[in-house]
Design a protein that fits this description.
Structural class: alpha/beta
Order of helices and strands: HHHHHEEHHHEHHEHEEHHEEHEEE
Number of helices: 14
Distance between the termini: 88 Å
Strand content: 5-15%
């Protein structure tokens, strides 16, 4: 079908039809009627129409469900341009206005601090209340209400969450302009009708910013307000990527006319554009290096075979690490079973320790044991008791090692307290030369 000849029944000029086809190719929209309506809504500006459609795609719930973590937002008052305009009703003039501005400033700081502490406490007790609204719905609802009240003559709104806007501004290396609206504020109403609808303001914002807006009364609007520490309405904040963080470099509070707004925005952009230029240069250099490496890989099959060999080796190393990990887990499990078995054996061996004789028994031998941990235990035995009874007394003590030997002090010798086989006879304390008071040492064989 010859679209350029019959305009596909849309009644368009050849130039308009060409733009419709280009929008189809760039966005993948099959319906030409939708493409025509989108272009008409933006006065046949192809660049603006494409950007709007990409923003709409980025703001869909499916993308929100897999939303990546937004970059950190830094708000350093010492490193940003701050513009404040008195309310037009006169309520912000003089000492009362200054006091009100200072109160709002400290109120925002206290509110942000309390909110951060609450969120920290909520995470510590693992309590996550149900999310009140979908952030994307808050943004779309504000855009629809804005267009119903003020019309379609405004900068292109970014149709995504605040996190999406931050990520896109960081990825695309563009300034992010944030507008927070307050419905019941007279200056906010006048700002939308006179300033944001001005053609020069619209053109300037479209050319240089990603423009994100939301109502301060919504959940998403309050989240953005807390992150950038927004003040009184109408509020505009300018963010740009600096030191790998989205940094607030400008804030404007109160009404300003189109000329003053353009002057302020141009001042901020002129000062901080160098940050984006440097980052673009770094990214371009990194991209160029990657491109050169890619061409070299494609040109030499040997490099491909080497990469495959490396991949094979990495796979073998991964399997070897997994096997080693399984072996270590099995050894740990076996060690744990051994310890549990010894613990059960200690409990069962308590009955093998004879009763302690009286202190003044004529055949009593008082023995002091020094354990490897430094503690001392002592007990009385009869001379006729077997050294095996001495062994099980130490063995059943909670601080005794799992495997040990008992030695005398001087001359040093190892006492055979446990038979190696069933036919071996164990000496008594008297046969081993222990009498009256003795000090024996317990040595850890696993140390």
């Amino acid at each position: 079908m010859n679209y350029l000849g019959d305009n596909a029944g849309l009644g368009l000029t050849s130039e308009q039809t060409e733009k419709v086809l280009q929008l189809q190719d760039l966005t993948g929209i099959d319906d030409m009627t939708i493409c025509r309506d989108v272009l008409q809504r933006h006065q046949w500006n192809l660049e603006v129409a494409v950007q709007e459609q990409l923003n709409i795609r980025e703001g869909r719930p499916s993308i929100y469900a897999t939303e990546s973590r937004p970059p950190a937002v830094v708000s350093d008052l010492l490193g940003q341009h701050i513009y404040y305009s008195m309310p037009r009703d006169g309520g912000g003039g003089g000492i009362l206005g200054f006091a009100r501005a200072m109160f709002n400033f400290f109120y925002n700081i206290c509110y942000s601090t309390i909110l951060a502490l609450f969120q920290l406490g909520r995470r510590m007790i693992r309590f996550e209340p149900e999310r009140p609204t979908n952030p994307l719905d808050d943004v779309i609802e504000f855009i629809n209400l804005y267009q119903e009240k003020y019309g379609d003559c405004h900068p292109v709104f970014y149709q995504g969450t605040f996190s999406h806007a931050l990520n896109d501004a960081k990825r695309e290396l563009r300034f992010l302009l944030v507008y927070l609206h307050k419905d019941d504020h007279n200056d906010a109403d006048l700002f939308c009708r006179e300033t944001l609808s001005h053609p020069e303001v619209i053109q300037f914002i479209i050319a240089r910013f990603i423009f994100w807006a939301c109502s301060q009364s919504s959940h998403e609007g309050r989240r953005a307000q807390n992150m950038i520490k927004a003040g009184s309405a109408p509020f505009l904040g300018v963010l740009v990527l600096r030191d790998n963080s989205m940094t607030v470099v400008g804030r404007m509070e109160g009404y300003c006319d189109p000329t003053l707004l353009l002057q302020r925005l141009n001042t901020i952009v002129s000062e901080f554009e160098i940050s984006l230029v440097q980052t673009r240069a770094d990214r371009y250099e990194a991209s160029l290096n990657r491109s050169l490496r890619a061409h070299q890989d494609e040109a030499f099959l040997e490099s491909l075979r080497a990469d495959q060999e490396k991949e094979r080796r990495r796979e073998e190393e991964r399997l070897a690490r997994e096997a080693e990990l399984r072996r270590e887990e099995e050894e740990a499990r076996a060690e744990e079973e051994r310890r549990q078995s010894i613990a059960r054996e200690k409990i069962e061996s308590v009955d093998k320790v004879p009763d302690e004789p009286e202190k003044h028994h004529p055949d009593a031998v008082h023995v002091v044991f020094k354990l490897p941990c430094g503690s001392r235990i002592e007990r009385r035995f009869l001379k006729t008791h077997s050294l095996e009874a001495v062994f099980y007394f130490v063995f059943c003590h909670p601080n005794s090692p799992d495997s040990f030997e008992i030695t005398t002090n001087f001359p040093k010798r190892v006492l055979r307290c446990k038979p190696d086989n069933s036919n071996e006879k164990i000496q008594t304390l008297e046969e081993a030369g222990l009498k009256n008071r003795e000090v024996l040492f317990v040595n850890d064989l696993d140390a």
